[in-house]
Amino acid sequence: MNSAAPHLRSLLVLSAPILLAAACGGGGGGGATTGTLSGQLLVPSSSAAVLADDAEAVIAADAQRRMVGGEVVVWLEPGQSPPDLTADGLDLLRAPGGPIAVYQARDAMDRSSLHEGAAVADSKEAATCRAARAAEGKTGIRCASPNWILQATFSPNDTHFDKQWHYPQINLPQAWDITRGSSSVIVAVLDTGIKAAHPDFDATRFVSGFDMISNPATARDGSGRDFDPEDEGDLATPQGSSFHGTHVAGTIGANSNNSAGVAGVDHNCKLMIVRVLGQGGGTTSDIADGILYAARLTNGSGQLPTQRADIVNMSLGAPGLNTVLQQACDAAAAAGCLLVAAAGNDNTSDPGSPAAFDSVLSVGAVDLVRARAPYSNFSSTVDLWAPGGDMTADRNGDGFPDGVLSCGADDSGNFFFNFENGTSMASPHVAGVAALVKARSPSLTAAQIRSVLLNNTQAGTSLPNSGRVLDALAAVQAAGTAATGPFLVATPTSVDFGASSTQATVALENRGTSSPGNLVFQSVSFSPAAPWLATLTSNDTAGDNIDIDHIQFTADRTGLANGVHQTVATLNYLNGATPFSVAVSFRVQVGSSATSTDTVFVLLVDPDTFETVFQTETTALSAFAFGFGGVTPGQYLLAAGTDRNNDNDISDAAELFGVFPSLDQLLVLDVAAGEVISDLDFALEEQSSVSSAGARGGRVFRRLR
Hints:
By secondary structure, the protein is of the alpha+beta class. The chain has 4 domains: 7-28 and 593-695, Immunoglobulin-like, CATH 2.60.40; 45-149, no CATH class; 161-479, CATH 3.40.50.200; 500-588, Sandwich (Immunoglobulin-like), CATH 2.60.40. The protein has 13 helices and 41 strands. The strands form 11 sheets. The chain has a 7-stranded parallel beta sheet, sandwiched between helices. Strand 19 (404-409) and strand 20 form a beta hairpin.
């Protein structure tokens, strides 16, 4: 037993029909999490090398594509000299000092550059693509590519973009290399209104909105319905107003790449602000009329916008099914709007309005590791999950809570940027990506955009009802027909070993549709240097389009001081692929050992409600052995801890606490009738006020009395 981190081990209860047992084994499992960083990386201006058959479609679709016309770069097999390709119209231009050689395509030199007005099929660029494909099939050549001129990939220069971990989580930066939105797409924001003077909003991004609040007292503006959707404050908390709509609108469309503030999901869409929530909330009639207004349908105000919204975001809701709101949503959907709504923050499986309606895309919230946020509703009507954050946690160790960062304001007229969490924060991520999809393919209907979003997702972490998480890159790629990529995508996008795990694996995938052959792994580099971190690469899938599809990180805490140790691992590929950054961190934390008088409570916990279902006890005197008998078949989390202050909470500060397989990964166990599960070894760590909240995502584990 480690004196700082006791391990629970097996105690077989053979008389029980169903048994969960733990045996002393090799420590906790991998502590992979998702996260934060996207650096300044080099890629072709929009996508990488293309096959000749793709040249016309791709080059025509991308007027900013640049290459050195006529030049083909090849990567030679080990020990191979540059082959003679003169019969194929390729002359050796630069002999290699290493594995890279450059050839000149004679056919390309007889043609004009596309950018000088030549037809695509007859252009120098298309001829170069054809020559690269021909070279790639020759003996001794591993891969070939046009000699693309690389640029820094688009990464917004907004001051606080590095704190918007929620964008890399949904592969949004890669999607921005395909589209950053269109001013022809309108997103309506039905909320508390907006502080339009916030410096991270661009006035040119707004179309005419409306204040639909009919009660002047609730509106706090001295008047009823009018064309001014300015948020006058809702006095929602003792500390002041929420300015909720400003935060939501910022996620959808804050002014981006302006060297200040934060980035929005869509950089170009128009925002239609419809104020429906005031002091104390909003009435059914005001919200229903707001929905109809956004859809340019007859409503109680007697007013209509010049053009209806394409997407309507509703970060609002209430328990139960409101039939009046349902009629309004159904009518707006029939008029061509895609309606997106927050599932609710009551940690319940009960459906609510308007998210639960069939005509609305319901959005639940996930935290930094793509697990259900502890507050998020989880009704079977939830269609999609997106980053909502968790303000009780700092799982990436950046010193800030894991909330969603966006635009904020206060009642004194100050403007700033603040972290918030909730399904209200998740919904605008979906609305913003929907706008990108519409920009990518303007002819798509609302129903088709919904289908693209739902059919092009990524896996979550044990989400209810086999839920899936928003994937901006996959959705934007699916919306278009022109080839894209290659795009290197890592899952997860960051690794947090916590205080006990030592190994984690990141899966790599080439999401591009135009890569000529495998992406070839070149190197991994670290900034800052990380001698405590080792890597091992592997390829497990034959015939895929990437030569290294897994990278295993192994951390060594030997001799390191207490605290959080962090680095950024950059995975470098050839063939024009975007290098990819993975944030890696772990804690060195020496806590107190369990004493012979400490009782450790071992719990089986419902993964949806986090209520304890079964409980047993163990101590140091029994070498922390434990077992369960008579367990009802189902799904459970396995957790354990002390309760030294006898407050019923085994996961608060100063307690020893752990989950299987580690504090950084909550794994759901499926227990079948008659099944015996063993070898569930895991460690306990003493919790601090930060680590206890971060390790369990703010969830409280309570023992049975």
